[in-house]
Amino acid sequence: RTSTATVMVLFATIIFLFGGVLGTFHHLYFSGTPTSVIAVGAMISALEVVPLLVVGFEAYTRHKVEHEAEWERIYHWPFMFFAAVLFWNLVGAGLFGFLINPPIALYYMQGLNTTANHGHAALFGVYGMLGLGLTLYCMRGLTDVTRWNQKWIRISFWSLNIGLGMMTFLSLLPQGILQTYASIEHGYAYARSAEFIHSPIMQALVWARVPGDVVFAFGVFAFAWFMVQAFMHGRKSTPETAAIPKPAL
């Protein structure tokens, strides 16, 4: 039922948003934060995998029945974006997050490009993709799904994900690893110094981010153009309001 599906989607969104905000408290080691706050951040971060597993199971079961009914097909792209949430939650929030969040790692890595790498992949990869998936879910009720230009959604989906992957793996992650090595060998201040940041290899890795930015920007344009076309050509028609009879005098 539509009402049940809507409630479940909103409930999952609330869990993600609520858990995500409190989960950021695990970054607050070595900043004078009370132990109780760090404990809340650690607990919520660990529990974030629960809704992730539930959404993953739902996406898997829906994929198996996608071609059994016509109405199932209109959920294809919203669930593709939700599947991207699962991937980036595993890689961006999970792998890159656990890379920097243990206390001994934070001592050397906090504030380096390892943090930016985790932030890019976890913030847009999880919450950005979640927002786009929910946008498409809402667009079903505002526009005519049968008139959607599927080509632009497909281009947007793959461009956003590939571009984000290029940003992280070609630029931010290598920069963070080099900074971490410099922090361990020569001290944290040197890893953040202008001398190291503007070294030839670091500057080359900064420019290595440009291809990913271009691909990602094209995905943003494609999604925006899809939205414009959907509202211009695919808005759902509403029945005309019946004329209200005049009361008898």
Tell me the domain tally: 1
| Average of the residue pLDDT scores | 81
Contiguous low-pLDDT stretches (5 residues minimum) are: 239-249
Shape: globular
Q: Could you say what the CATH architecture is?
A: Up-down Bundle
Protein name: Nitric oxide reductase large subunit
Keywords: Membrane, Transmembrane, Transmembrane helix
Pfam families: COX1 (PF00115)
Organism: Stakelama sediminis
Describe the model.
- There is one protein chain.
- With 249 residues, the chain is mainly α.
- It has one domain: Cytochrome c oxidase-like, subunit I domain (Cytochrome C Oxidase, Chain A).
- The protein contains 12 helices and no strands.
- Helix 1 runs antiparallel to helix 2.
- The C terminus is likely disordered.
Topology:
Layout: H1 2-23, H2 35-47, H3 49-64, H4 70-73, H5 76-100, H6 103-109, H7 113-142, H8 150-186, H9 188-191, H10 194-197, H11 200-207, H12 210-233
Helix pairs in contact: 1-2, 3-5, 5-7, 5-8, 7-8, 8-11, 8-12
Characteristics:
Cytochrome C Oxidase, Chain A, disordered C terminus, 249 residues, 12 helices, mainly alpha, globular
Summed up, what is this model?
The protein has 249 residues and is an all-alpha fold.
